[in-house]
Amino acid sequence: MPKIAKELSPLEVKNLRHTGNGQNAVFAVGGVAGLMLQITRNGGRTWLLRVKVGAKRREIGLGGFPDVTLAQARERAREVKDQIRRGIDPVEERKAARASLIAAQRRGLLFQDAVDRCLASKLDGFKNAKHRDQWRNTLDSYAVPVLGGMMVDQITVQDVLRVLQPIWQAKTETASRLRGRIEAVLSWATVAGHRTGDNPARWAGNLKELLPPPDKVAEKGNQPALSLDDVPRWMAELRKREGFGARALEFAALTAARSGEVRGATWEEIDLERALWVIPAERMKMKREHRVPLAPAAVALLEALPRLEGCALVFPSTKGKPLSDMTLSATMRRMHESEVAAQRPGFLDPRNKRPAVPHGLRSTFRDWVAEATSYPGEMAEVALAHRISNAVEAAYRRGDMIEKRRRMMHDWAEALGGKRKGGKVVRLS
């Protein structure tokens, strides 16, 4: 069997030195098979992944140290291996992307530029600011990462499918709206003279033949959720993973917050001394300020996070920008796939048997409150920042039960960690 490299710590990696001979020194750092730190004679340090792609052995660069940390290098190495397992040659994909970018700079219109130009004329027509933000955010989160570097006149049905298929089952409503928005951008590009022919994002007589109808896939708003029995095992596996994506997903679980609220969190919003996270109204779905009491586990997670100089985000991407929604989804998907590969059940919704997704963690929290505790349901609704449907109740409820919710979130954190104590009865004044 191949020798397994010792998993080095960040300090051990920092202390590695060139061996003194004329060649570059290469050290295995462990954590991911084939991950190496290469050190040149003059002290330059870069990450390499030695891996077999088809019949070829490759050395794939993953960036320089310390700009790319040990945790980030391991996460990138896992992503590259995930590509290879899916039959993608990362080196050839980089070459193709670079060639596409060069060609795009010389002629035509990129999809990402078409989005900007289309929305510049369309967004002013939206009276609802939330609707404007949704248009921009869904395209930026899902379509631009896949289609952004492509010429609008080269986008095919298969390209649109590459955007929609990963989320068609798990986020059907979002995917359906996204399809319509891609269609609108490509329609604008056609009218503006940047492309000709049929619209590859059209539904009738086109994608309808390749994707199941949205109303047949899942009920509206029904996101696959973790089983309560799987919660401790899932959290234990998540805590073994490194990177901001894994920590953002863990924080989302501990706070029962939406993915977008977590990914956009800034250090200015968080008071570690008071163990409180205050999300401003403009970042909330209901456009109201939301206070989140932080359990000790959530505070410990935040205190252990590195802070990027000049970046206000709590969970930044490698470029210092907010993580994409796909980052959290991909982390959760890989966790499920790893379980299945190890011939374990995986992490499935007990009702529809679909792999659980990040937004489903909120449903798991709500199930825990209802089935495993004596906390009032209305307290859980406040924690989830849901709209109060009863007008009279909404008019009379002035506070947000912050201290009572603090105990509930503490118990939820313990349940996530495997301590299955139910909540205590809380009398509402």
From TrEMBL:
Residues forming coiled coils: none
GO MF, one annotated term: DNA binding
Domain Tyr recombinase: 221-409
Keywords: DNA integration, DNA recombination, DNA-binding
Keyword Ribonucleoprotein (UniProt): no
GO-annotated biological processes: DNA integration; DNA recombination
All residue ranges annotated as the Core-binding (CB) domain in the record: 109-190
Family matches, as Pfam families: Arm-DNA-bind_3, Phage_int_M, Phage_integrase
Keyword Signal carried by entry: no
PANTHER family: PROPHAGE INTEGRASE, PROPHAGE INTEGRASE INTS-RELATED
Name the record gives this protein: Integrase
